[in-house]
Specification:
The complex is a heterodimer of chains A (about 160) and B (about 180). By secondary structure, chain A is mainly alpha-helical. Chain A has one domain: Ferritin (Up-down Bundle), CATH 1.20.1260. Helix content of chain A is about 60%, strand content about 0%. In chain A, helix 1 packs antiparallel against helix 2, helix 1 runs antiparallel to helix 3 and helix 2 packs antiparallel against helix 4. Chain B has 7 helices and no strands. The longest helix of chain B has 26 residues. Chain B folds into 2 domains: about 30 residues, no CATH class; about 130 residues, Up-down Bundle (Ferritin), CATH 1.20.1260. Chain B is elongated and about 55 Å long. Classes of the chains: A mainly alpha (about 160), B mainly alpha (about 180). At the A-B interface, helix 3 and helix 4 of A face helix 4 and helix 6 of B.
Chain lengths: ~160, ~180
């Protein structure tokens, strides 16, 4: 994941709330920040025929982050700030590296949003997270298709079943 | 065991015996069945995951049958769909049993993908890729509607199933993207 630390949950952010549902939202938005940063790197190393996928993914993540930030603000809940910089989990120098980074970011997003589904108390929040999880699963599959990986889908996106 | 609270079952039974001995026999046997089933006097609430399980089993059979008739380029994707829906069925069976407090059933969650019996698709025409896509889309929408109404682990499980079915029908099965 493109976070200052190997995993977002290991990030000792003093603003991260203690309540499980608020913490899950905080983590998910932090991952969206990191993913938006990471897609800049993906974009820089992707071939032209992946342009549409890069811009579609980036705009999905941007829209979701803005919507999530608004939901947190409306609920007077804490939201994470984007980091000044992120350490990439893999060195990205080729188009394949870029695709692998995208798959990894979408997989991490799926995990974060599934945690929101499981911990949120409101149906509206869970519905938002189901959409986010689904979109990340679809993007991960599309990136694996670009990479010619197989299989391109997983049985339980965001889950460990 | 000693207990300060008299069992509600015994109260009901005793009253039934006093009021109407004949009916009490029925009440006692019904109570015995209820106790054997779940150990609780309240009737069990309907299990919302049952419908998801039915859909997972149907999709598994449909995709497996379609794979047999499909041209080689699309067959692996259909087999992958069948395998994923079989895993969904197993996870749902497990969660339904856990919630009910019953042991896991011994039969498999889905029919094996052996080429012999495909009961729901035993017609002349094998199912097409479009049939599988339609079924997956309906399953994805059903799971996406249900997941937010659930909570905890089962909400996450059904959310993941919605995501998996959507990725399959949007990305794995359409021919335009598959041949890229």
């Amino acid at each position: 994941m493109t976070t200052p630390q190997p995993t977002p949950s290991a990030t000792p952010d003093p603003h991260r709330p203690d309540k499980p549902d608020a913490a899950a939202w905080f983590d998910a938005v932090a991952i969206e920040h990191a993913t938006i940063y990471g897609y800049g790197i993906v974009s820089a190393h992707s071939p032209p025929d992946a342009n549409d996928l890069v811009s579609e993914a980036l705009s999905q993540h941007r829209e979701r982050r803005e919507a999530a930030l608004k939901m947190l603000a409306d609920a007077s809940a804490k939201a994470p700030q984007p980091a000044a910089g992120y350490q990439l989990p893999i060195a990205v120098t080729t188009a394949t590296d870029a695709g692998n980074l995208a798959v990894r970011m979408e997989t991490d997003c799926a995990v974060a949003w599934r945690a929101v589904i499981e911990r949120s108390a409101s149906e509206q929040d869970r519905a938002f997270a189901v959409t986010a999880l689904t979109q990340s699963a679809v993007l991960a599959a599309r990136w694996k298709q670009v990479l010619r990986a197989w299989p391109i889908t997983t049985s339980f996106p965001g889950g460990s079943e | 065991m000693l207990s300060a609270n008299p069992s509600p079952h015994r109260l009901v039974t005793r009253r039934n015996v006093l009021v109407n001995g004949g009916r009490a026999l029925l009440a006692v046997s019904a109570l015995g069945a209820a106790l054997a089933a779940c150990g609780s006097p309240a009737p069990p609430a309907p299990e919302p995951l049952e419908e998801q399980l039915d859909m997972a089993r149907r999709d598994n059979e449909l995709a497996a049958a379609a794979a047999k008739a499909a041209p080689p380029p699309i067959a692996p994707a259909l087999l992958e769909v069948a395998a994923e829906r079989a895993r969904h069925a197993s996870a749902l069976v497990e969660e339904i049993a856990r919630a009910a407090g019953t042991p896991l059933p011994t039969e498999p969650a889905t029919s094996s993908s052996a080429p012999s019996a495909t009961p729901s698709t035993a017609m002349s025409e094998p199912p097409s890729v479009a049939d599988v896509t339609r079924a997956l889309r309906a399953s994805a929408e059903s799971a996406a509607r249900l997941a937010p109404t659930l909570s905890g682990y089962r909400a996450g499980l059904v959310g993941s199933i919605a995501a998996a079915c959507t990725a399959s029908y949007l990305v794995s099965l359409p021919p335009s993207t598959r041949t890229r």
